What does this fold into?
Amino acid sequence: MNFELTEERQMLQDTLRRFLREKYDTARRNEIIGSEAGMSPEIWAALAELGVIGALFTEDQGGFGGAGFDIAVVFEELGRAGVVEPLLDSALLGGRALAGAGRDALVEQVIAGAVHLAFAHGEPGGRYDLDHVQTVADGNRLTGRKAVVMNAEAADHLLVSARSGDEIGLYLVDRSAAGLSVQGYPLLAGGRAAEVTLENTPAQALGLGLDDIKDLNALAIVAQSAEALGAMETATALTQDYLMTRKQFGRPIGTFQALAHRMSDLLIEVEQARSAVINAAGYLETDDRDLFLSATKNLIGRAGRLVAEESIQMHGGIAMTQEYELAHIAKRIVMADHRFGDTDYHLERYIALCVA
Amino acid sequence: MDMSYTPEEQAFRAEVRAFLEAELSPELAEKVRLDRDLTKADMDGWHATLNARGWLAPNWPKSFGGAEWNAVQRHIFEEEACAAHAPRVVPFGLSMLAPVLQKFGSKAQQEHWLPRILDGSDWWCQGYSEPGAGSDLASLKTKAVRDGDHYIVNGQKTWTTLGQHANMIFCLVRTDPDVKQQEGISFLLIDMDTPGVEVRPIILLDGTHEVNEVWFTDVKVPVENLVGEENKGWTYAKYLLNHERTNIAGVGFSQAGLAAVKRVARAENHNGRPLIENPHFAARLAQVEIDLRAMATTNLRIVSKAAAGGAPGVEASMLKVKGTIIRQEINDLARRAAGPYAMPFASEAVEGANDMVPDPHDAGPVAASYFNNRKLSIFGGSNEIQRGIIAKVAMGGGR
Ligand SMILES: Cc1cc2nc3c(=O)[nH]c(=O)nc-3n(C[C@H](O)[C@H](O)[C@H](O)COP(=O)(O)OP(=O)(O)OC[C@H]3O[C@@H](n4cnc5c(N)ncnc54)[C@H](O)[C@@H]3O)c2cc1C
It folds into this structure.
């Protein structure tokens, strides 16, 4: 057992953290969130340049990482800074799907930051169920609707799941394809998504099925959990700081035991969350993968809610304001529970896997 | 003990229901249901409708033009109004300032200000908190210096709810800096159109403009706007805080919120079954409903006792703490029920956003409300402060 990061990953973490600290403060990010595109092309290009996207792919795929711990390192830092650029959907989900389908030329462009993707799998009424696909593939023509598709407006290509008979497959759809309509909207925690409808839309089958979608979903759970962990670290750091500096009744509020003990609880929960993310990353390529992923996502959901709510509460009014860093961070943490299965979903799944 | 409603109470409920059906427009109710920002005109309109019916001021004595309802009547009205998605009446003039004026104001003040509250001539906001004085309100620094017939006010208030609509603000100001903090505070009524008053918006985390900073630079306030005696403001403020807390359990809001969660959970599909049948979700829903049923009775018990003359002290703190825990838990369930559709930012701040988010079950901005309602356990005396009050009474030897 060794819980140290490898030298490469340590370097990646340091570089990314430094970059985001310098270029991605609250004011800059609020500007990005308020912009029409909801993301920054400059930041995207810089992240690609730093190798952040490449770290999400294996050497075989043209990257230099791609393992659970590479993904965790990247997304923890993105979470720490509350980054709203859609790396999870565009680079990880979209990029790794293309890599799995052997679309090397496109993957190369993704890693270079030149191509944007969206992963259009969930459908209205499907909640978090992975096999709820009603979009129909008739030969190479797709018809159906996809729900809350991140980055759909900005994507050059969409990866769309569809059903052909009993088989669920993944298809590549051009953003400008006929019959594709994209209704975009902003998200509460920053970034943009869209309702996507397809009507007899031309597509290319990628040769990937439901099992591949599950594999991609596994990567996403590692990423989303690590992102929430990073955000939780920021929330606790801000709270710790505030408790030591904010004075009421002539003393720092952190000296009130009613708050001090709760601060301690948050620190304990963040350590638990860190271990949960390590479990998810470490067991990603084992037979116990699904059990650990569900355990992690459930724990992150519970700890995340506690950290977000308690951090706001212990700050008082200031944490309720858009200008204060914690407001955005708390939203990222809580909204992480609305993707790839929430706390309850993964509790059930964990129970089912234990019984099985 | 008798838990059933009397025939008179049942008749009153029917009367309230008929009134709401006749007077509350479906458009306004829909805005309230979806937690959209209400315009000043929306709020003014509902205020006027209630006033025309004589139901605007349920807690005021009849002699001042109030309805003077008992606790059960108020409970019934709150339940029905929330269920029908009636707007909340803006409380600052009606339930915060008015009781203070009725108890401590001069006859001239009562005659001038109280009718203006009822007919909507004045929109009041509450100027208590300052950047440095939140929970520790008595440390407030905004100062008022007597100069002939006027006070000259300098300083800053913050978190002023709906101050952007207000023309009047009631403030706690420091009139004597040399005595014990609580003994140098006065209660002052300030016209916000006076030169030197500046209102700056604060945008909250859900994108709403609900609170403000209010700055005072050499603002001249006539001495007749002092309420009661100089340097006695803390006493009046504490009296007001008790009134602020009487409706704090928010039982009606919780009931309406719970009904909304159930509606979405019935429509939402989870593994081929309605979400409401899912054992985990159903258990959590039942748990909070069980708490709420008890809370409704706790609320009635306490409010009846207060109506019979007992001052709500520690009990009001209990209502605040448990009532907000329940409301916030319901907000949490609401966002969970919505699943991935909790993520879109369906706010009026974004033009037309609601039309673009065809959320299949029309749950409304559940996540935005979840975040906005974090305020419930922060303002009006935070839950930590309330617990401190309860503990002090329970273990610190008396009230
Ligand atoms: C949306 C909103 C609307 C508001 N509207 C108004 C308004 O209209 N008018 C107005 O005057 N004010 C208003 N307020 C202000 C509100 O009353 C204050 O936010 C509240 O008093 C808490 O003060 P604070 O935010 O400065 O937090 P602080 O007092 O700094 O508290 C920070 C944290 O420390 C805790 N704490 C403080 N002291 C103790 C202690 N002794 N023991 C244990 N814990 C402690 C608090 O509970 C909190 O968790 C509003 C606030 C909000 C968020």
